[in-house]
Every structure is written in C-alpha cells, then in structure tokens.
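Hi all, posting the design record for the shared folder.

TITLE: backbone redesign
STEP: 1 of 1
STRUCTURE INPUT:
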C-alpha cells in the first residue's frame, strides 16, 4: 500500500485475521453478558480471571497479560475497540499478512499490559496512591497499536473516517486519540486502564520497529541463519573430537582442524590456507 494512499473509510472487507479477532471478541462478550445476566457470580468470576489486575499478576495469573484484550463490560468500549480493528486492521493485514497481524495484536497487547503492570508496581513502591492502579480490559491497546502501525505505513495518507465526510491526515488521528486518552488519564487519576490504552500506541511503534520494517526483517533473518550455522559448526567439531577419541582407542590417529574438517595424514603439517583437503564453513 503506497504511503500517500488516499484512503476512504467506507466498509472494508470482513475477512482474515481481522474477522477472526472480532468474532472471538464478540463471542466472549456475548458469553460474558449472558453470564452476568443469568449467572452473575460466574460472570464476575470470568471477568476476574481474564481482566488485567496487578494484584492477580502478583499471585501468578500471568495469562491476564493476553486475556484482558477479550474482556469487556461496557458495550460502548467494546464497539469502539472492534470498530478500530475493523476499519484499520484490514489495511494493515493487507500489508503484512494475517500471521503478522496476529503477532501485532497479541504482541502489542502483552507489551502494553506488561508496561502497565510495571507502572503499577512503581506506583505502589513510591506510595503514589492510585497511580496505575485498578484494572484494564478490552482490546483498546491493540486497536491503538494497529492505528500506530497503519500511520507508520501510510504517513502522508489522508483518511476519511466513516461516517464523517471530512478528510484529514492520519497523523492527526493518532495525535487526537493520544490527546483524548491523555485527558482521560488525567481525569481518572492516572488509572491503569488509561495507561494501558496510551501504552498501546507505544507498543505499536515498538512492534513496527522490531518486526515490521524491512531492516528488522533482514536483521532477524541474518541472526537466525548465523545462529543456525554456529550450531552446525559446533556439532561438527564435537563429532570430530568424538571420532578422534574413538580412533585413538583403536590405536589409530586421525586429525581434524579447528573447523572439524578432516586432515589427511600427508597434510597434517600444513597450515590453514594450504592445499589440504576438506572444507571450511
């Protein structure tokens, strides 16, 4: 998708990872509402198990770093979050593919949750009252991360936000949402929920920098193949040492160089770089 794309926000296609994430969120929300209506205790338990709570994390409930994205109570919060994923997620998915969109969704959710938990620990340690306390729920952090990645891929794109017939640069949307959520952060006394939403924007930037740029992709690939080749070289040297011991036990002497390559008897005195047989990887 070109960076200067003129994007009209009508009704995007409902498919791929975006479809699966929204359907999963909707199914869990419906189950939560039904439980709250007809089995209130079970509904409260479901929310307690899934929503991000620093106190629960201290007890070892680390799954909440991922599950809080699928826990909702307020229908407006649910609607705004899934609409953000629907209207922008499809464009990001077209750019990076379904698998990497799942990675962005869950990775940014976990990053924002862990950072929010760190702030809550800091607030408790400094005896800062309600600083980063309370709970967090919903996929707002992931929606903000998707918005940030959309902006980074389309920095100069004007956007028309359905149903408003007004075009404006996407960067102003990022700034506007960041400003609104900062205002809520101040109004709510630095609550954890608002911190996590803001941290979602930062998590999107971090995820884009680490995993979605061409440079980061090449760097990760190079590191992977370098580690793989180092492992194979280590295995070859280890096998060579074992074979030397085996042959020595049978009153025979064989020689291998520092790379694990066999040196024939006539070449044993030649230095590396001579005409010895074998190979170097």
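Okay, here is what came back for every position:
SEQUENCE:
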């Amino acid at each position: 998708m070109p960076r200067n794309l003129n994007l009209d926000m009508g009704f995007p296609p409902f498919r791929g990872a975006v479809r699966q994430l929204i359907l999963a969120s909707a199914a869990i929300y419906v189950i939560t509402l039904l439980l709250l209506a007809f089995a209130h205790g079970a509904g409260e338990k479901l929310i307690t198990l899934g929503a991000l709570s620093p106190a629960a994390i201290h007890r070892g409930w680390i799954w909440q770093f991922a599950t809080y994205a699928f826990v909702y109570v307020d229908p407006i919060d649910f609607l705004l979050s899934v609409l953000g994923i629907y209207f922008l997620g499809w464009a990001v998915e077209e750019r990076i593919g379904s698998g990497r969109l799942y990675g962005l969704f869950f990775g940014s959710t976990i990053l924002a949750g862990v950072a929010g938990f760190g702030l809550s620990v800091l607030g408790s340690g400094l005896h800062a009252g309600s600083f980063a306390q309370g709970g967090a729920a919903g996929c707002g952090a992931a929606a903000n991360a998707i918005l940030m990645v959309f902006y980074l891929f389309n920095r100069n794109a004007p956007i028309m936000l359905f149903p408003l017939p007004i075009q404006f640069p996407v960067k102003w949307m990022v700034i506007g949402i960041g400003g609104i959520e900062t205002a809520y952060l101040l109004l709510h006394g630095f609550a954890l929920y608002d911190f996590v939403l803001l941290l979602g924007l930062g998590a999107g930037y971090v995820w884009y920098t680490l995993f979605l740029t061409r440079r980061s992709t090449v760097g990760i690939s190079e590191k992977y193949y370098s580690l793989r080749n180092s492992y194979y070289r280590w295995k070859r040297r280890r096998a060579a040492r074992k074979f030397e011991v085996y042959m020595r036990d049978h009153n025979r002497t064989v020689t291998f160089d520092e790379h694990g390559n066999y040196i024939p008897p006539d070449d044993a005195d030649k230095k590396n770089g001579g005409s010895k047989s074998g190979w170097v990887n």
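COMMENT: The first strand starts at residue 7 and ends at 8.
Let me know if anyone wants the other runs.
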